[in-house]
Each structure stands twice: as structure tokens, then as C-alpha cells.
Amino acid sequence: STSPIRIFSTVSSYREWRQNLPSNIRVGFVPTMGCLHSGHISLVTHAQKQCDVVVVSIFVNPTQFAAHEDLDKYPRTFEKDVQLLTEAGATAIFAPTTKEMYPHPASRTVEVDPIGFATETREGQSRPHFFKGVATVCTKLFCAVSPHFVFFGQKDFVQTVVIKRLVENLLMPIEVVVCDTVRESDGLAKSSRNTYLSPTLREASPVVYRSLLAAKDAIEHARRHALPIASENIRDATCHVLEQEPLVTEIDYVSVADAATALEVETVS
Questions:
Q1: What is the pLDDT of residues 187-224, one digit of tens each?
Q2: Please, are residues 9 and 98 in contact by the beta-carbon 8 Å criterion?
Q3: pTM to 2 decimal places
Q4: DSSP reduced 3-state for 208
Q5: What is the DSSP-derived secondary structure letter of residue 266?
Q6: pLDDT tens-place string over residues 217-243
Q7: Residues 10/164, Cβ–Cβ less than 8 Å
Q8: Which residues, including other chains, have CB under 8 Å from residue 215's CB and lie 6 or more apart?
């Protein structure tokens, strides 16, 4: 039978428990904003393979949302999340309040800014506030949880680059593990925000995955012929698929980026 999961809502109560773990115990950490799905659970499963203890945080971080974004309506399903994590065999949940994570007024707060990400990456240009919010909250969570390993999904690709940069730059004794994206049977990446999709939009949404496959095909075709391929051609292949879908009225960006830096590349060799 599944053992009851420990739930901590304060840093001090969590730390007391954390300090009493034997020193040879490897702690794995999966940061989430709740509204969990099988993608999150796959991260827990990965963590269990590498670690002795798995801690999952549930915290909807206000600093990574812009004023016009969906902070207030972001889905919150705490009871269900606890149930899923209990069934998955996670060890503990860290579910702090906003006051616990951000105890100081805005005028006296410290932010962690991953220099360049807001201005130089396509996603950062599209959401300029986002990566500073992510870097700040992850720094706080890593300090609170003291993990040896942290697990993130590849779906949020640029975020994983930010987290690796953060850990390396701030000399954190943490290993970042990036796990494969988990998808629905029709290719749509699992996401808490999928709950926003109407049935019509949900039916159309796999076009995004098909457009990525078109990019992959274009790259593989060029590789088979040992040719470099211009990023512009990859973007065209992607947009061509997206534009077939009448519900796609605007394309925010299609990024062809270096996997290590998330910066745009001119050609893929």
C-alpha cells in the first residue's frame, strides 16, 4: 500500500525534516506549479530511479507571470495533486504560500536575472518577464529544498537552458536532469494549460507537433545528403504546416536555436 506523503508548507518545517535525513541519502527534486499530469509524474519516476528521496514542490509562482497573463486562472488542483503524488510514491510535497516564498515587499526583494535570455532568445523576447521569474523562484526553491538532483521536462526547452546556466553560474551543488517530453496519443505535449483548450482547439492543437516533425524531416533530409540547411528553410517548413490549420491566425515565433545556449542559429550543419 502507498505510505502517506509528507506535506510541508513552510521552509522551516521542511528543513527540519531535511536535516534529519541520513547524509548519504540522495535527494531528487521536481519543481511544479501543480495541476499535475502524467508528464510531471514521469519526472517523479525518473527521480526515483536516481534518488532515494523525491520531493515535489507545488507553487504557482507569481513573478513569472506578466500582468496580462493567466496567474489568477491558472488551474489549481491541490487535493488531486496530492493523490497523484501519493500513488506515484513521491516522498514529500513542499507547498509554500506566496508569503513564504516572497517574504519581503517588492522594494526590498532580490531577483535573479539570467542575463541575455529576455533580449536574445526568441522565447525571452516573447515573454520578457518570464525567465527572471523562473530563475528567481528556482534559486529560492533550490535553497529551500537542498536537492542533489533536479528534474525538468524538455517541453520547456529554453527554461532548461536557463536552469543549467543558473546552477553552473551560482556554483550550486546540483545536477540538472532533463527528461523527454510526454505527449498525448495525437502528439500534443502534456501541459496543465491544455485544460484551457475548447474541444475545437484541442482537436486542432496537434498541428504544433506536426509542424515540429516537419522541421525534423527537413533537417534529417539535409543530413542524409550531408548538406547544411538554412534556419530560414526549417522555419518555412514549420510555418507551412501551421498555416494549413485555419485556427492558426498568427505565429508568435518559430525558433531554430543552439541546444546549449538557446540562441538562434543561421544554419544547421
A1: 999 999 999 999 999 999 999 999 999 999 999 999 99
A2: no
A3: 0.96
A4: helix
A5: S
A6: 999 999 999 999 999 999 999 999 999
A7: no
A8: 234, 235, 237, 238, 254, 256
Burial of 12: CB neighbours in 10 Å, binned 0-12, 13-18, 19+: exposed
b/e burial code for range 181-202 (CB count within 10 A of at least 16 → b):
bbebeeebbbbbebeeeeeeee
Mean pLDDT of 111-120: 95
Task: Tell me the three state secondary structure of residue 89.
Answer: coil
CA distance 192 to 37: 7
Identify whether the C-beta of residue 138 lies closer than 8 Å to the C-beta of residue 62. Answer: no
- The whole-angstrom separation of Cα 69 and Cα 89 is 33
Distance CA 17, CA 253 (A): 45
Q: Is 240 a catalytic residue?
A: no
Angle (nearest 5°) at CA 154 between 24 and 205: 145
Active-site residue, selected from the candidate residues 37, 40, 46, 129: 40
Cell (9 digits) for 106:
517588492
Distance CA 39, CA 189 (A): 9
User: Counting Cβ atoms within 10 Å, is residue 175 exposed (0-12), middle (13-18) or buried (19+)?
Assistant: middle
DSSP 47: H
CB contact at 8 A, 59 and 138: no
Kindly give the pairing relationship between strand 27-32 and strand 149-153. parallel
CA 86 to chain centre: 21
- Grid look-up 536552469 returns 163
Task: Say how far apart CA 211 and CA 243 lie, in whole Å.
Answer: 10
Distance, in Å, from the CA atom of 41 to the CA atom of 30, rounded to the nearest integer, reads 9
Q: Which amino acid is at 170?
A: L
Q: Tell me the per-residue pLDDT of 134-179, one tens digit each, with 9 for 90 and over.
A: 999 999 999 999 999 999 999 999 999 999 999 999 999 999 999 9
